Amino acid sequence: MKIYKSLENFPFIQRPVVTIGTFDGVHLGHQKILKRLQKIVQKTDGESVLITFWPHPRMVLNPDNHGIKILNTFKEKVALLESFGIHHLLSIPFTREFSKMSSEAFIQEILIEKIHTHKLVIGYDHRFGKGREGSFDHLKNNQTQYGFDLEEIPRQDIDNIGISSTKIRKALETGRIRTANEFLGRSYFLEGTVIKGNQIGRTLGFPTANIQLPDPNKLVPKDGAYLVEVEVEGEPFNGMLNIGNRPTLLPGTKTIEVHIFSFSKDIYGHTIKVWFRDFLRPEKNFGNLEGLKLQLEQDRENALRFFKDKQ
């Protein structure tokens, strides 16, 4: 997949089959569009083009009160889109100035003059341009003038159970991991660098890897304990992860700590990835270290039983 971070660098390509959207999460609804794009490309001998925007528009339009956390960093989104065979990813920098571009200007200057769109595929109720004024109906009514084919993916084909990035965020923020994973079509994941913590877990027999995320806007699920799968240097492991302020230890800054089963390597400074499989329990204050240790032992038993049942 070729990536372009400005319109100026986008080349001329033959028969571009185009779609547009933020595609945060690349969830099952998005995947319907991507798979349809692949089929059209195969039939037309064209090339797929996905136009997206970075940063998320809400972060630009409401910088002090956007109230949104992203499901994927840009790097993560690139990897997910590439796995669906997209040929060209055009990431347009979303600025206040760009937000003022009318839908008509977007169609003429970007879709027609720059991309030379052969066919445009969009999800139901997709809006674009200043004030989200552009719509499928407008495109359809002026299709002859624009000169490109047009297809809308019907609502029932995208999300007959109401999938949306917003619903996935709400599920993660309330600890409903299974629901979020069902909507995503895969397990939600975090990826970050292992940093040093206070190493109290080691004294309890539960050494943990503290994870520092590369983007503070990445959504972190609800505080609590989780069953996770972990990738370290390309190898998969099972484990349990805690998100929260560690009320039994040193309440303060929120941490993300994972205890990896059957693992003893020094991985400080390494990048690891964790996939959330299920919510284990809420975070709580156990009063003392002995109470915390007893709970961690019970958590480990529950986790090992969970992963054994999944084999």
Q: How would you sum up this structure in a few lines?
A:
The chain has 311 residues and is α/β, with parallel strands linked by helices. It is built from twelve helices and twelve strands.
How would you describe the overall organization of this protein?
The protein has 311 residues and is an alpha/beta fold. The chain contains 12 helices and 12 strands. The protein is 33% helix and 25% strand. The strands form 2 sheets. A 6-stranded parallel sheet has the order 1-4-3-2-5-6. Strands 7-8-11-10-9-12 form a 6-stranded antiparallel beta barrel. A hairpin with a 2-residue loop joins strand 9 (224-232) and strand 10. The protein starts with a strand and ends with a helix. The mean pLDDT is 90.
How is the topology of this model organized?
Elements: E1 2-4, E2 16-20, H1 28-44, E3 47-54, H2 57-61, H3 74-82, E4 88-93, H4 96-99, H5 103-112, E5 119-123, H6 136-141, H7 143-146, E6 149-153, H8 155-159, H9 165-173, H10 177-184, E7 189-195, H11 200-203, E8 209-212, E9 224-232, E10 235-244, E11 255-260, E12 271-281, H12 289-310
Parallel strand pairs: 1-4, 2-3, 2-5, 3-4, 5-6
Antiparallel strand pairs: 7-8, 7-12, 8-11, 9-10, 9-12, 10-11
Helix pairs in contact: 9-10
